[in-house]
Amino acid sequence: MNDVSRDPIEALQRTLSPLSGEPLVILLTGHPDPDAIGSALAHQRICESLGVPATIAHVLPISHRENRALVKLLNVEMLEVGSTAELARFKYLSLVDTCVPEPSIDLPDGLKLVTVVDHHRGPGKVDAPFVDVRPSIGASCSIYASYLQGGLAPLTGERRDDARVATALIFGIQTDTDDFALATPDDFRAAAYAKQHTDVDVLKRVGRRTVSASAMGVLGQALANLIVVRDFAIAGVGNVPVGDRDAIGGAADYILRREDIDTVLVYGIVDDRIDGSLRTNSPSVDPAAFLQTAFGRDRDGRPYGGGRADKGGFQIPLGLLADSEDVESLWSLVQQTVMSRLARAVPDLAPKRDRRKNDRGDRDDD
Ligand SMILES: [Mn+2]
């Protein structure tokens, strides 16, 4: 039992202190993200200040490049475990940024859950000696920053470890609150506390959004092939590897930042389909309606594209054409098709000749 709500710091200290000298594992759930990593570092720091040797472990790989960069730049030591046996040497378990242990691995029978700190609305009651779940806060890192600020293993700037933990905490808060857009006053207080001890250079480097070489190539293609008609922009980027499909949307996001453009569509060939992304700042463009006007529906009546307020996407299967070995002819055919279809939604895109034809009353396509 605990009286966490009254004084979580006291309760956490009272839970961990008796475990002094006993190996504890902080097992991350899912692919480690910055909020989990920052919380784990802070938890490890607290454990060590109380004499509890703590190891951070994870089962699933770190999937995002930015998160790998964070781990590397901050020298975060994490044990990647693949089997129950690898956890056998630990006596105690702490969960951070989750109430649920990683489901893809069976926990050893003797491993005892001692602490849970999370900000997700959990699946109900969590049974552990120390549980601090605050769904009203933006990041678990904010909860941990409040422990440190409250005097449990506080950041003082005296240890080299301080900058590491502070930087990880800030990055965790920043990521989980969508760059502070969703941050609560508690998150801001936590960030303000951690900020004093961060390594600004490292924070700038981990915060920099990384782009793969191939994704940058897609952006280069989009910029080179950009067609701008009034405030509408369109760019075809040719063949894009399946793994870089997100680069199409990324290129559209980037181009939308051009000041004289308010709607952009980027498309390419991905695998056996035409794949594209629409982005808009225009109050009068509804992405789903726009894409349906341009590309219509498939034989089953499903629209090729869909979207929400400011973004949309579409996929059109190439069918047998996908097998074509003449890459250039196929791309040229795709470009012509997309441009003529887009002219339904953006009449200015139609070649002059066609527009005259339309003016004469050829309206089948409208
Ligand atoms: Mn989180």
Number of strands: 12
Which cofactor or ligand species appear? manganese (II) ion
Shape: elongated
- Helix/strand class: alpha/beta
* Uncertain spans: 354-366
CATH topology of the largest domain: inorganic pyrophosphatase (n-terminal core)
| Residues in β-strands, percent | 15-25%
CATH class of the largest domain: Alpha Beta
Oligomer: single chain
CATH superfamily of the largest domain, please? Answer: inorganic pyrophosphatase (n-terminal core)
Reported for the largest beta sheet, the result is:
6 strands, parallel
CATH architecture of the largest domain: Alpha-Beta Complex
**Which radius of gyration do the C-alpha atoms yield?**
26 Å
Sketch the topology as an H/E string, one letter per element: HEHEHEEEEHHHHHEEHEEHEEHH
Helices and strands in order, then pairings?
Elements: H1 8-16, E1 24-28, H2 34-49, E2 54-58, H3 65-73, E3 79-80, E4 92-96, E5 112-118, E6 130-133, H4 140-149, H5 160-176, H6 185-195, H7 200-207, H8 213-224, E7 227-229, E8 232-239, H9 246-256, E9 263-270, E10 273-280, H10 287-295, E11 305-307, E12 311-317, H11 327-342, H12 352-359
Parallel strand pairs: 1-2, 1-4, 2-3, 4-5, 5-6, 8-9
Antiparallel strand pairs: 7-8, 9-10, 10-12, 11-12
Helix pairs in contact: 2-4, 2-5, 3-7, 4-5, 4-6, 5-6, 5-7, 8-9
Description:
Helices cover 37% and strands 18% of the residues. The chain is an alpha/beta fold. Strands 3-2-1-4-5-6 form a six-stranded parallel sheet. It is elongated. Bound molecules: manganese (II) ion. Manganese (II) ion (MN) is lined by residues 35, 97, 119, 139-140, 176. Manganese (II) ion binds next to loops.
